[in-house]
Specification:
Elements lengths: L22 E6 L3 E6 L4 E5 L18
Antiparallel strand pairs: 1-2, 2-3
Amino acid sequence: GHLGPTHHTQYTLLPISQIPHTVTVIAPAQNHTLVHTSRNEVWSWGLNCFSQLGYIVESSPSSV
């Protein structure tokens, strides 16, 4: 799965209230971020152009 309300780019910072447990580690990268929680969950968000967030990037339908 992925985190966020849509599949579109979000240009403003918003709190992520969906993380129900304490964040123990934050791993920021250039275009995405990972966090590890006290319940051993990993959450990810950001740019997903190479599927680095754990879900497949859907391609646009090709023209016929």
